[in-house]
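writing this on my phone so excuse typos. first protein, seq and then structure
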Amino acid sequence: MILSAKHLTKSFKSPSLVPVLSDVSLDAKAGETIAICGRSGEGKTTLLHIMGTLEKPDSGKLSIAGIPVTSYNGSLLRRTKIGFVFQSYNLLEDFTALENVMMPARIARRPLDVNRFLALLDEVNLLDRAHFPAKLLSGGERQRVAIARALCNDPDLILADEPTGNLDRSNASQIGEILLSSAKKRGKTLILVTHDQILASLCSKRYTLSGGKLT
């Protein structure tokens, strides 16, 4: 099992107590593509951040690639087991596309095989933009860089938060296809949260988060 989440709960306590997740459980096997849908404000991003060890649940258990998540190993798991794709891209604007793709390997102090990183950009049809600063790229191009970056450290799990949310229909379709094909090609587990019903329909499993429950 690549991801196992059991009985997760989460509430925000300021300015008043707001329950967000209530007894959420989810298992994801190698190679599965999973969409989590739901209205805005239902806690989809919070759930994704908990699964990515960016936030802590109030209660419940989480394991990534068979490793129980603790207060001490979240950073290591993010560097070695998880790749992220964010709605707002989260690129370093003054760095080139290639430098952005390389960044997870730099942070993890892994060997910097430039040819491998260029191959990732080629896979997302962006090799000709390798040396362009991120701030000069279009939204669709930035998200393609983000996908290549998520694959940099060969993670077991890819988590995508509204990966097509900032894009027009044409670019959204293109990004969805690239994200799914890249995950399937490598046998990676992909979990995404989305309002995009077309993208959700392409995943092997689909869940809805509503009222703190995942169904």
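second protein below, same order as before
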Amino acid sequence: MEVVNQTKRDDNQLLVIMHLSQLLTFITGFGGLIVPLIIWLTQKEQVNEIDEQGKAIINFQISLIILAIICIPLAFIIIGIVGWVILGILAFVMPIVNAINASNRVSISYPLSFKFLN
């Protein structure tokens, strides 16, 4: 039995695509979680930094879903509507900012993320 030494490769383009794929939520309504999840699961053993960034993206997307659900009953007292607007802005801006950071090899961060995956 031969053991092959596999080293991880650098692939900034894939990292950028993974961050920007979150914007599919605005087009399809659900792709922003599924596409990054598939990229992360299939490439986490082959690409440097994709495991950490994939976990951050999945944590962010699940956090957005939970926070949007929390805003439903709060919508009756207007706070929920403000919450949805803030979540919508974050869901649109943060993937773009972090895609730029990933392409420049700068650390990424997603605000309001709960740590589901560590």
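The two ends are 33 Å apart (CA to CA). thats all i got for now
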